[in-house]
């Protein structure tokens, strides 16, 4: 049993009927696409790819943190990993640590993008998405 705001009651079927059948007061609603409501979570490889992309020309830890939208704790874990597997180089300049992608990191990034392209469905290939610029 469903209670409407005006005090009337009804069943789930009558609610569905009200939502999807046009009346003079209501506009018909399309079914909700769950992917619009809940954005997909970024997986670890995606985040590593973002970090490597951000560090192409060299970047400070805080720049990577803000551009990749990571917490300080998350960023430290990722940086420890990517530096440990030699995808990024950590360079000290004027007592500041700069992270810069190296040859192995560029190879990883290139292969990761190839895999992303292979896994795209036909609908995704038609959907042109422009990534926002990184400042």
What do you see in this structure?
The structure is a single chain. The chain is α+β, with helices and mostly antiparallel strands and 135 residues long. It folds into 2 domains: 2-34, no CATH class; 44-122, Orthogonal Bundle (Arc Repressor Mutant, subunit A). It has 7 helices and 5 strands, in the order E-E-H-H-H-E-H-H-E-E-H-H. The strands form 2 sheets. It has a 3-stranded antiparallel sheet. Strands 1-2 form a two-stranded antiparallel ribbon. Strand 1 and strand 2 form a beta hairpin. Helix 3 (44-54) crosses helix 6 (103-119). It is extended. The model is unreliable at 15-23 and 26-38 (pLDDT under 50).
Summary?
The chain has helices at 12-20, 34-37, 44-54, 61-67, 72-84, 103-119, 122-126, and strands at residues 2-3, 9-10, 59-60, 88-93, 96-101. By secondary structure, the protein is α+β, with helices and mostly antiparallel strands.
Structural class: alpha+beta
- Going by CATH, what is the homologous superfamily of the largest domain? Winged helix-like DNA-binding domain superfamily/Winged helix DNA-binding domain
Percentage beta strand: 5-15%
What is the architecture of the largest domain at the second tier of CATH? Answer: Orthogonal Bundle
Main-sheet strand order equals 3-5-4
């Amino acid at each position: 049993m469903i209670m409407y705001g005006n005090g009337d009651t009804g069943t789930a079927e009558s609610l569905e009927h009200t939502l999807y059948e046009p009346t003079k007061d209501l506009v018909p609603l399309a079914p909700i696409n769950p992917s619009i409501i809940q954005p997909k979570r970024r997986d670890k490889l995606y985040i590593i790819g973002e970090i490597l992309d951000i560090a192409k020309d060299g970047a400070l830890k805080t720049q990577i943190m803000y551009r990749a939208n990571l917490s300080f704790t998350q960023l430290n874990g990722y940086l420890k990993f990517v530096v440990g597997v030699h995808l990024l180089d950590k360079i000290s300049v004027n007592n500041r640590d700069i992270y810069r992608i190296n040859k192995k990191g560029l190879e990883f990034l290139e292969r990761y993008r190839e895999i992303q392209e292979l896994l795209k469905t036909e609908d995704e290939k038609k959907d042109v998405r422009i990534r926002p610029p990184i400042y």
